[in-house]
Amino acid sequence: MELRAYYLLSTRSRRAIVKTKGRFGRPYLYSPRGTLLNRLSRELGMSREKVYGLLMQEREILLKQRKI
User: Fold this and answer.
1) How far apart are CA 3 and CA 46, in angstroms?
2) DSSP secondary structure string, 13-58?
3) Residue 41 near residue 51 (C-beta atoms within 8 A)
4) What does the DSSP 8-state code read for residue 5?
5) Strand partners, 21
6) What is the pLDDT of residue 68?
7) With contact defined as beta carbons under 8 Å apart, do 28 and 39 qualify?
């Protein structure tokens, strides 16, 4: 699968999507901001829910690649 939304993200969003640990080693739960979902839904022509699902799929792909 190719990454469609990842290349449209800003630097901070790219860092956040691949982040796994927060402060003091706690697990990091990624949740994209509403403004990001709105912008990507406009640019990709998808609903906000589909954009959210796409971001989560791409996050899984990116995290699997980092484990290698």
Assistant:
1) 15
2) HHHHHT--B-GGGPBP-----HHHHHHHHHHHT--HHHHHHHHHHH
3) yes
4) S
5) 27
6) 65
7) no
Distance CA 25, CA 10 (A): 25
**Are 67 and 56 a contacting pair, CB within 8 Å?**
no
Residue-wise pLDDT tens digits, 3-52: 999 999 999 999 999 999 999 999 999 999 999 999 999 999 999 999 99
Which long-range CB contacts under 8 A does 46-52 form with residues at least 24 apart?
A: 51/5
Q: How far apart are CA 16 and CA 42, in angstroms?
A: 21
- Predicted TM-score of the model (pTM): 0.93
Instruction: Residue count of the chain, please give it.
Output: 68
